[in-house]
């Protein structure tokens, strides 16, 4: 890949990409050319086509050109029908900055091994429903995810595991949105997201959590239902069986220091990438120029009537 503008990766990540993602340097130039030709022919898509972005998409789709086409079309189509998430992504906007500072979504910097999945900490008790709504939280989540997807080769190649701390979150927070939005968000974060989710670990689960987890599972694709989903109750000892103290913040019995330092670091990182994030607001689809079938318009429940989501299980 020496002729491409792509970051070099470590030997550990290169082995992982070859063994698990079907990566072969001999074919990457041809693969990128095929994707670019498809993008040129798909005049409805306004998307990025730089080498690094397209290689990251290839890795996310295990170097299947067909899966890249399907996922990328959904990636841009679903973003277009979620303006409450994809519009106004300015990290210096006072309201957006306040939501960032809540620190609901907090990427953790370390893993035990260099080819382990990266870790995203999601803190339900940091969500103040009097200040913002769930779409605002998802907006920050996607802003962080866009920067991670661009910059973090370990995340792209090895995937991500989520630690979801429900803390003292009132159950009303989990239902502070309509089901139509929730389904769109599920498509965005599964079929349309190029980041591969490896598992979900819940901690500090409240009473009635079974209801939440059943809703959570019902919105997953069949493939994602097979991922690791573990509830640790309130037991840090149970959490530490999967995540040693060396890679956790001090609030979770770890040695990394307080969560707030990572919240602050990501606030600054989003500000540093303000131009990139604002530019991404202009990306999406123009349905008037589409020749192919819209992969989400057939899903009638996204537009007010009942439909099936099974068509979208592309993986």
UniProtKB/TrEMBL annotation:
Gene Ontology molecular function: phosphatidylinositol bisphosphate binding
The organism's place on the tree of life at top rank: Eukaryota
PROSITE patterns: CRAL_TRIO
InterPro entries from the UniProt entry: CRAL-TRIO_dom (IPR001251), CRAL-TRIO_dom_sf (IPR036865), CRAL/TRIO_N_dom_sf (IPR036273)
Gene3D superfamilies in UniProt: Alpha-tocopherol transfer, CRAL-TRIO lipid binding domain, N-terminal domain of phosphatidylinositol transfer protein sec14p
Pfam families recorded: CRAL_TRIO
Any one GO CC term of the record: membrane
SUPFAM superfamilies xref list: CRAL/TRIO domain, CRAL/TRIO N-terminal domain
Protein name: Uncharacterized protein
Source organism per UniProt: Aedes aegypti (Yellowfever mosquito)
